[in-house]
Amino acid sequence: MSVTTTGRVVAGRYELSTLLGQGGMGQVWTAYDQRLDRRVAVKLLRPDKVAGEEADELRRRFVRECRVTAQVDHPGLVTVHDAGSEGEELFLVMQYVDGADLGDHLAEHAPYPWPWAVAVAAQLCAVLSAVHAVPIVHRDLKPRNVMVRQDGTVTVLDLGVASVMDADTTRLTHTGTPIGSPSYMAPEQAMGGAVGPYTDLYALGVLLHELLSGDVPFSGSTALGVLHRHLYEPPPPVRTLRPEVPEALESLVLRLLAKDPQHRPASAQEVYEHLEPLLPARGTPTGAPLDPTRPFLRPLAPWPDRSRTPAPRPAPAAPASPAAEKADVAAAVDEVKRLLGEGRITQAVDILGSILPVAAEQHGENSPVVRTLRKQYAATLLDDGQYRRALPELRRLAAERAAEAGQADPQSLRYRYEAAQCLEQLGDPAGALAEYRALLPYYENQYVAADDPRLAHEVRRRIGHLLLALGDRAAAHDTLVRLLHDVERGQGPGHPLAVEIRRTLQWLGQVRG
């Protein structure tokens, strides 16, 4: 990493002031926004610190993840002000949070009073509930990524950054180690399996155990040793260390730390509901700073069954002539093209969602114009990370195409494949696995495979990693071994997919051994 000095101005606007911390992939600075005259935090990342990722692709993913992250509206999540690249570095400009990170706060109060631990966990559940509804998975929830503000409120940092550093939910670094913090890493993440909201809940369990006991449940002298314990050893019950901790709280921590994601609580909302009876009774705050029980009121609870905010609907207008309506649709299509060309995907999605009903009324649901708009709408939703809204659109397109051209039609299969990706991102590994398995015979068929032979390998890779996420390591191992054999035979042992699978199998064998 090049030496960065105080006084440097990033993006012609953000003047770096004080280095707050640095690691293998970047630095965090306090800075001043010269345009708005306010203090901000700037995170600088170096793409070349991540092996196997092309710099241009990483920059594209970085901006996309920052855009998606910026759409999460919750007071417990740090606000993203700006993001981009400058020279070899990526930069992320965030709200400056005045307080202490949870790791330092715990060090001064270890172990936490258990009501404090409950209050922190409940606030984190509120944040995770909003984040998972997008859906986004944090992937690296730990005390250093949580700030306790002066008024006791908790703020989560680095949302989306771990996702950018990990090129896919299943990638490993060039050393064969999964990206993340070993002490807080769920078994499925440690094995390179598909991650989901359940992965963040495991990390929450580790964090809650640490707050209550003063230490993480699994430690060791090496990352491999720590991950082996996550995979195979039961966590120590916290009441053996602190008998005053309520039994209900200990039971919740053990459920969060279940090896199998299916045995953990179903959602952050459910965890919150278990924590709520243990929250401190309302009363007069002590006035002490950094007390996480102080801000706790019911409005901070997550919203049950909260879904992504729908696209804004246009205000009712006076009826227009057919010619004017057609002109509006054409103008909207042109505007969407312009916005997509400028990378303004979220705005393009909103316009497409608004114009589709108008176009359907004018031309008919099955008209070529509406079909084209629906395809663009689904593709744009997918590119914008709006998987919850993309899923029904993709399923509809797949069904319509299959009814016209048959179940084996490559375009119908592609829509189903993208729908399976949505299920994976929405934290439904069982549903995604079932869909990929249903698709695989088509992609292994000689006629269909000729359209894109790589898709059969990709589907099999995803099946293997979803099996890891579901805890079926033996089936995952067999799936990936067979895939490795086929890739090496057809593409050679040096093919990137073969190299990646070999690393995963090596890591799997090390941990199992």
Q: What does it look like?
A:
The longest helix is centred in the middle third of the chain and has 20 residues, at 322-341. The chain folds into three domains: 9-95, Phosphorylase Kinase, domain 1 (2-Layer Sandwich); 99-300, Transferase(Phosphotransferase), domain 1 (Orthogonal Bundle); 423-513, Serine Threonine Protein Phosphatase 5, Tetratricopeptide repeat. Mean pLDDT is 82; it is low at 167-176 and 305-324. With 513 residues, it is α+β, with helices and mostly antiparallel strands. Helix content is 50%, strand content 10%.
What are the SSEs and their pairings?
Layout: E1 9-10, E2 14-22, E3 26-33, E4 38-45, H1 55-70, E5 80-86, E6 89-95, E7 99-101, H2 102-109, H3 114-132, E8 146-149, E9 154-156, H4 161-165, H5 187-190, H6 197-213, H7 223-232, H8 247-256, H9 268-275, H10 322-341, H11 345-363, H12 368-383, H13 387-405, H14 410-425, H15 429-444, H16 446-449, H17 454-469, H18 473-491, H19 496-512
Antiparallel strand pairs: 1-2, 2-3, 3-4, 4-6, 5-6, 7-8, 8-9
Outline of the structure:
With 513 residues, the protein is an alpha+beta fold.
The CATH homologous superfamily of the largest domain is termed Transferase(Phosphotransferase) domain 1
In CATH, the architecture of the largest domain is Orthogonal Bundle
Q: What is the number of beta strands?
A: 9
What is the helix content?
40-55%
How does the helix and strand content classify structurally? alpha+beta
Strand order of the largest sheet: 1-2-3-4-6-5
Keywords, please?
Transferase(Phosphotransferase), domain 1; Phosphorylase Kinase, domain 1; Serine Threonine Protein Phosphatase 5, Tetratricopeptide repeat; 513 residues; 3-stranded antiparallel β-sheet; alpha+beta
